[in-house]
Amino acid sequence: MRDHARMKQITRTVALEDLRDLVEHSSGGHLAYVAEGAPQAVRVAARHDAGRWLVTLPPDASIPDGARVVLLIDDGEFYFELRGVRVRGTLRDAAGGSREVVPEKIVTWDYGSMRRRTS
Amino acid sequence: MTAGVVAAATPGDVRVRDALRRAMIARIATVSAGGWPLIMPLYFVVLDGRIYMNNAATSPTVRNIAVNPGVLVLLQVREGEVVRVRGTAQYLRDAVTMKRVTRASIPKYMLRPRALWFWLRNLTRIGTRSQYTRERPDTGMIEVTPESYAVDPA
Q1: The domain spanning residue B144 has which CATH number?
Q2: Which of B46, B64, B99, B135 is deepest in the core (most CB within 10 A)?
């Protein structure tokens, strides 16, 4: 039985579908990876297309196939404008010089849609 | 692996100073105990040369810096140009730091004209936001001490 007294009542989580305009027409995102034990991140062209997370790395970025990565696509400046998606997964080669983040876990948020949970 | 062509910079570099002063969002990259990367967008302020970001004690970023304090913070003011701050992070929960950071946040995120206008337009949502914050009382500050700066050109 859920402990409703302790369960958080307000959520900012949204369905990925609710962020379609952000992820399908994004101006870009950030791709984080690990190099020699240290965190690295690069700005990437990124979009969600037919269920696939496609990224184009900058010319001088070299991340091997199979690397663990996190793709962050977000926007907004003021509180209720903040929204985004974070895709944790593995980087794979894709056609046409792009790469693909094959997802293991996806987290979404939209502070503008902050609301009381219904269940 | 390489992270692209970047130019080393100093704290006095006008691009670094501009980013620290004007960027609204810091994206902090960390590494988990299991070697996974993570990157999160957070609000931030700069005090005495250090970068402070409010975050819950249970957040994955805070868990990561407990085991791997080396972080990378990305700041962007204009399209294309990214200031990269590499440093060491720790998580603080003392009342003095939290008070200082909260005070520094107010002019940046609440009192500038665009911010004031934003909050006026969203007055009816403040109650929901307040409850959201009350439900998450385990909050503190990530403090990043910069060790190096670099600029990705536009």
Answers
A1: 2.30.110.10
A2: B64
- The whole-chain average pLDDT of chain B stands at 91
CB–CB contact B109 A9 (8 Å):
no
Q: Give how far the C-alpha of residue B142 lies from the chain's centroid of Cα atoms, to the nearest Å.
A: 8
Domain hosting residue B83, numbered range: 7-152
Is residue B116 in some structural domain? yes
Task: Test B125 with A63 for CB contact under 8 angstroms.
Answer: no
| Rg of chain A on CA atoms, in Å | 16
Asked if residue B2 is part of any domain, the answer here is no
Length of chain B, please? Answer: 154
B1 in a structural domain: no
Please report, for chain A, the start and end positions of each structural domain, with discontinuous segments joined by +. Answer: 10-116
Multiple choice CATH, A10-116, 3.40.50.920, 3.40.800.20, 3.30.70.1170, 2.30.110.10 = 2.30.110.10
pLDDT digits (tens, 9 = 90+) for B76-122: 987 778 999 999 999 999 999 999 999 999 999 988 888 888 888 88
Label residue B16 exposed, middle or buried (CB < 10 Å: 0-12, 13-18, 19+). buried
Residues of chain A contacting residue B76, judged by C-beta atoms under 8 Å apart: 43
Residue with token string 């140009």: B81
Name residues whose C-beta falls within 8 Å of residue B66's C-beta, 6 or more positions apart in sequence: B91
Write out pLDDT tens, residues A54-76: 999 988 888 999 999 999 999 99
Question: Residue A38, exposed/middle/buried by CB under 10 A (0-12, 13-18, 19+)?
Answer: middle
Chain B contact present for A25, CB below 8 A = no
HSE at residue A55, side-chain half, CA atoms within 13 A, is: 30
